[in-house]
Design goal:
mainly alpha; 3 helices; 35% helix
């Protein structure tokens, strides 16, 4: 019984101690911005660039393909024209792309 009474008193004391404390107020923020003096301002001392010309020769135009040639080339590149034999004894059929 004494233990229950002692624990109850301790719990009440802790509860009152936690409720009664207030957090200290934060100090007011100040604006600490200082302007840089003129004599400390960095100066760009690099010499100006020489008169450069930006001349580029145009690249050669890509070879012209017909729509059918382009479709076959794309299909060969993605492996969509691969032909497999129907049985294990037959030899695989060569792609048209390998013949070119």
């Amino acid at each position: 019984m004494r233990i229950v009474l002692l624990l109850t008193a301790a719990a009440a004391t802790l509860s009152l101690a936690a409720c009664g404390s207030k957090e200290p107020e934060a100090p007011a923020l100040e604006n600490n911005v200082v302007e840089m003096p003129e004599d400390l301002t960095p100066v760009n001392e690099t010499p100006p660039a020489e008169n450069l010309t930006n001349e580029v020769t145009p690249a050669a135009p890509p070879p012209a393909f017909t729509d059918d040639e382009q479709m076959r080339d794309d299909a060969d590149a993605t492996g969509l024209t691969a032909r497999l034999p129907r049985s294990d004894t037959e030899a695989p059929v060569a792609n048209e792309a390998a013949e070119r």
